[in-house]
């Protein structure tokens, strides 16, 4: 005998909205091929134009930034984080974000995500045709206050609004978790704290979670403990690693992450970058060094290393500094 229960219209609408939202998140995750890395392949997320340039004290001319992105697009890289839609008062280097996104040449098969920490930034990004955005949280309470001027709890509430609006617009969202292996203000960060933030971002709809060693203090030992905790709550195929090379541990940490099954890695050509709110942190791991290691291990990156080194030389010359990539230094010595 069938049993029927009366369901009010309001309850029906609420349930329908929930399942529609859940399905929307699932579809967007599946449509985004970023994390669906095939056997023997790795995905490199080039963060040079955004994370690499955001901390430059001297304003980099917009035409140089545009040329930088366009040159990277010709190297075989499939994901290039182009700019950041943040407050120009806080990060003046990114004040030309809209102009960059309207003037770069978008190559077929290349994705150009941007950072959008709030709804205002998201709406601005949507207006210039952005297809993927990233939100930026922290596993450290003190770093969250210093970086985005709010608590972790409040930041997650803000991000949830961004993710919901982005999903409605058919835009995929990537989540960054900073200070996963240490904080410049509070020191050690527990693996459990990292796992909690990563899980929240994944549940709210981020298709991929990038775990950032913001100040480069991590070692394979500490990384192993953190990943062991995080992979219990987020599928390994939805995780990425973002290393800084402050203590020369970046490549060792990337190798450790490979052993865990991670196949997505952030890096910056010529080793550019550093967080303006993380004192003492040197640049990101150099994309050239990452590509060289992966190719030597038999992984397919799709990147032309020679072309990549030339782009690193180009931006380094325009910034008036040497290329920080060890591979670039070696190849340049051979008169590349």
**What is the spatial order of strands in the main beta sheet?**
2-1-9-8-7-6-5-4-3
Poorly predicted ranges (pLDDT <50, ≥5 residues)? Answer: 1-12, 16-20
Classified by CATH, the class is: Alpha Beta
CATH homologous superfamily label: Aldolase class I
H/E series: HEHHEEHEHEHHEHEHEHEHHH
Mean pLDDT: 90
Rounded Rg:
20 Å
Estimate the global geometry from the Cα principal axes. Answer: globular
Please name the CATH architecture.
Alpha-Beta Barrel
Q: Please indicate the count of domains.
A: 1
Beta-strand content: 5-15%
Structural class, by secondary structure, is alpha/beta
Number of strands: 9
Helix content: 40-55%
The number of helical runs is: 13
Reported by name, the CATH topology is TIM Barrel
Pfam families: HMGL-like (PF00682)
EC number: 4.1.3.4
GO molecular function: hydroxymethylglutaryl-CoA lyase activity; metal ion binding
Domain Pyruvate carboxyltransferase: 42-309
């Amino acid at each position: 005998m069938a049993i029927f229960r009366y369901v009010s219209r309001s309850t029906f609408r609420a349930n329908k909205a929930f399942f529609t939202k859940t399905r929307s998140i699932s579809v967007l995750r599946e449509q985004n091929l970023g994390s669906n890395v095939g056997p023997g392949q790795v995905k490199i997320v080039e963060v040079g134009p955004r994370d690499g340039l955001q901390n430059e004290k001297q304003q980099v001319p917009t035409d140089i930034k545009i040329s930088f992105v366009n040159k990277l697009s010709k190297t075989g890289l499939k994901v290039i984080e182009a700019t950041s839609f943040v407050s120009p008062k806080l990060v003046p280097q990114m004040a030309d974000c809209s102009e960059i996104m309207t003037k770069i040449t978008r190559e077929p098969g290349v994705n150009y995500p941007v950072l959008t920490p709030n709804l205002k930034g998201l709406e601005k990004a949507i207006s210039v045709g952005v297809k993927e955005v990233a939100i930026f949280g922290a596993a450290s309470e003190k770093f969250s206050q210093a970086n985005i001027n709010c608590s972790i709890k409040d930041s997650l509430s803000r991000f949830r609004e961004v993710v919901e609006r982005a999903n409605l617009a058919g835009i995929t969202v990537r989540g960054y978790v900073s200070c996963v292996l240490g904080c410049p203000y509070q020191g050690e960060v527990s693996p459990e704290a990292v796992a909690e933030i990563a899980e929240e971002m994944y549940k709210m709809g981020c298709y991929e979670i990038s775990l950032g060693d913001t100040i480069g203090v991590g070692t394979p030992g500490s990384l192993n403990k953190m990943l062991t905790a995080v992979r219990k709550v987020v599928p390994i195929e939805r995780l990425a690693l973002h290393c800084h090379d402050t203590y020369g541990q970046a490549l060792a940490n990337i190798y450790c992450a490979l052993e865990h099954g991670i196949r997505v890695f952030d890096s910056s050509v010529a080793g550019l970058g550093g967080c303006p709110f993380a004192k003492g942190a040197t640049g990101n791991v150099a994309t050239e060094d990452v590509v060289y290691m992966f190719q030597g291990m038999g992984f397919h990156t799709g990147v032309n290393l020679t072309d990549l080194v030339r782009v690193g030389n180009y931006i380094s010359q325009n910034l008036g500094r040497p290329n920080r990539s060890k591979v670039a230094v070696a190849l340049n010595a051979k008169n590349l």
